[in-house]
Structure formats: structure tokens, C-alpha cells
Amino acid sequence: MLGRRRQPADVLPSGQLRQFSGGREGYVLTGEGPFDVVDLLDPAPAARVTSLADQHAFIRAFYGLPG
Asked: According to the lineage, what is the superkingdom (predicted)?
């Protein structure tokens, strides 16, 4: 079963990249940049698909923001 790449916790569709790509691309936040860019509508393994709350928690932790 395939999910959508837009849901993994480590994918961030930044505002600037959304404008540049017409809303289709996001960054994969792994380690330090430069970050890989992925199409948000490409298939992703079901095991990598997460909730929006999990994605927000990952992004806060990645940037060291309070949770």
C-alpha cells in the first residue's frame, strides 16, 4: 500500500519552495543542508506516512523549537 510523500514527518513544504514549484515540492529534513527536494505527490511507503501532528512535532524538534 502506498501513501503520499507529503505526509512523512521529515518533509517540509517551505513557503518559498511552494511558490517556486507551484506547490508541488518539499524539502526532506535530514541532518544538515542542503536538503533533498521531493515531489509532494510522489508515492511513499505506507510505513513513512504520518499524521500532521507528527509532522509538526518533528519540525519543531528539528529546529529546536518548544513543543
From this structure: Bacteria
Domain boundaries, the chain: 2-62
Cell of 34: 542542503
Beta-bridge mates of residue 4: 43
- CA dihedral defined by 32, 29, 26, 65, rounded to 10 degrees? -100
Distance CA 21, CA 28 (A): 15
3-state secondary structure of 15: helix
Give the rounded distance of the alpha carbon of 57 from its chain centre.
12
pLDDT 10s per residue in the chain (67 long)?
Answer: 444 444 688 888 889 998 999 989 999 988 888 899 999 888 888 888 888 889 899 999 999 999 7
- Cα 53 to Cα 59: distance, rounded to the nearest angstrom: 10
